[in-house]
Task: inverse folding
């Protein structure tokens, strides 16, 4: 028996293999499909995706063989990774390198072997896609080509694995950054917001009108900056799938009442009134959802309605039953949303032109967050607007029977 | 009421000082967990307000160490932090904190918030 030489790039090659983080992982369909196809096409009982580690070859996929690894010094694949071409032994008993190889003389009796090297994009050969038979055999040209093609598919899987790993790391770094940025932004905000609040509410030495007006502006804008920080953090959680819901059985009528109470003060500030309209049959509905999240959506709808409607309007909250859905609507009678602007409504950072009221600016993220919250709870969100007449924002949630 | 306030940001300590003055608290301010551990045994606070993210000893570690001090095993500890995601809050409560006050806190209601947390605790 003649042992294979080590590849000239052995250290770099092993590093590449370890970067994949694939050794000793469980079988995956994608690789098993490819070995099955290789065995079918080449008409052999065994086909393997073999990765050549420092002291062993390890099989990511092992069609027709129970073993998951063998020592490297007796592995046929150790020879196959030395060249770019398919490495073929038609009859190991007639080959001085393999005739006394324990894998040939004992189980699994490797007599015929053909291994297509797995050549990564940086030319490192990590292992092979190989087919094995216990009887001598020849491959036709088209079988050889097919084996090479399937090996390239294995490489594609490996490259994808690397890519996914890289993206996960980036995504993790992004989350870390956002969490850190959010904390770093809040710390100075605590000082700014707190100082302004103390100044504004200092009854011992009251401010004059001009001072008071300037401090109010600064205070309101520090609140706005804080909402922005909160919204960005929230959105990044939604986008990375980290937003958690704490669902429970909820009565939508009670939910709307809570939202009304929470937003009463804001509506007064905007010179609007607010009322809840609901038929008796709708007072006993049940949905299964996260109460805080729904209140967040409703507060967003209500504050938008109060902000953009005319002074003195009454914002209507309506609860209806439509088929198997509870529908909650927030209606204002303001200028509405023009047809051109309607497609921008749920987009991030798109604040619509609002000539009526810009004294209480928002972050431009509220409706996008709301849409995510409702859709992640299997609901439907939408709006209807008749310019110069009224606008209705609504969400529907499936009823619990 | 004797209150130990641990916060590494000097500006936030000042705001808390103004927010809590004339509210009937006797306050010792500390700028680190280490300082809090040094002052707490003699001061014997009745309530402790603790920042979470501090250089050196962080809030949770400070909490664990404060609990080792005789007389402070059951003292109410409230975290003051910008880390207020639901799972983060659960984590702080599991550590033995009584409540979490979110930053930025409202200085006008801070004293009331502390009192109502203590009252609810009984």
Result:
């Amino acid at each position: 028996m003649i042992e294979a030489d080590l590849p000239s790039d052995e250290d770099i090659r092993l590093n590449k293999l370890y970067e994949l983080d694939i050794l000793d992982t469980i079988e995956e369909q994608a690789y098993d499909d490819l070995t099955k196809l290789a065995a079918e096409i080449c008409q052999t009982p065994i086909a393997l995706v073999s990765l050549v580690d420092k002291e062993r070859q390890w099989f990511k996929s092992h069609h027709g063989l129970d073993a998951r690894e063998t020592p490297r010094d007796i592995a046929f694949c150790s020879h196959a990774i030395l060249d770019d071409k398919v490495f073929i032994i038609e009859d190991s008993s007639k080959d001085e390198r393999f005739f006394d190889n324990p894998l040939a003389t004992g189980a699994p009796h490797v007599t015929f072997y053909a291994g297509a090297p797995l050549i990564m994009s940086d030319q490192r050969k990590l292992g092979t896609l190989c087919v094995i038979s216990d009887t001598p055999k020849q491959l036709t040209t088209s079988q050889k080509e097919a084996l090479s093609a399937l090996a390239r598919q294995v490489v594609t899987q490996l490259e994808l694995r690397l890519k996914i790993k890289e993206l996960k790391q980036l995504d993790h770094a992004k989350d870390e950054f956002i969490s850190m940025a959010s904390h770093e932004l809040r710390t100075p905000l605590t000082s700014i917001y707190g100082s302004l609040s103390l100044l504004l509410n200092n009854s011992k030495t009251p401010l004059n009108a001009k001072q008071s007006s300037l401090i109010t502006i600064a205070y309101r804008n520090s609140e706005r900056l804080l909402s922005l920080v909160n919204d960005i953090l929230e959105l990044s959680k939604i986008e990375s799938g980290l937003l958690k819901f704490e669902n429970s059985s909820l009565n939508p009528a009670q939910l709307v009442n809570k939202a009304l109470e929470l937003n009463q003060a804001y509506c007064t500030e905007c010179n609007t009134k607010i009322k809840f309209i609901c038929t008796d049959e709708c007072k006993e509905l049940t949905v299964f959802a996260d109460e805080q999240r729904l209140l967040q959506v409703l507060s967003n709808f209500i504050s938008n309605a109060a902000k953009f409607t005319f002074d003195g309007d009454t914002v209507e909250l309506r609860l209806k039953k439509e088929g198997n859905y509870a529908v909650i609507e927030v209606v204002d009678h303001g200028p509405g949303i023009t047809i051109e602007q309607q497609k921008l409504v749920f987009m991030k950072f798109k604040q619509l032109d609002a000539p009526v009221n810009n004294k209480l600016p928002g972050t431009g993220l509220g409706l996008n967050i709301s849409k995510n919250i409702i859709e992640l709870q299997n609901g439907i969100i939408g709006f209807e607007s008749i310019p110069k007449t009224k606008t209705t924002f609504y969400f529907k949630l499936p009823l619990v029977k | 009421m004797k209150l130990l306030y641990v916060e590494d940001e000097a500006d936030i300590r000042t705001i808390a000082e103004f927010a809590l003055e004339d509210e009937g608290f006797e306050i010792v301010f500390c700028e680190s967990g280490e300082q809090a551990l040094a002052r707490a045994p003699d001061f014997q606070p009745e309530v402790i307000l603790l920042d979470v993210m501090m250089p050196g000893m962080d809030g949770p570690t400070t909490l664990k160490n404060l609990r080792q001090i005789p007389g402070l095993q059951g003292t109410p500890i409230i975290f003051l932090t910008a880390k207020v995601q639901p799972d983060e809050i659960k984590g702080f409560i599991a550590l033995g904190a009584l409540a979490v006050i979110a930053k930025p806190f409202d200085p006008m209601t801070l004293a009331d918030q502390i009192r109502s947390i203590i009252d609810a605790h009984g």
User: Anything to note?
Assistant: The first strand of chain A starts at residue 46 and ends at 52. The interface with chain B takes residues 182-183, 186-187, 189-191, 193-195, 197-198, 201, 226, 244, 246 of chain A (CB under 8 Å). Chain A has a mean pLDDT of 91.
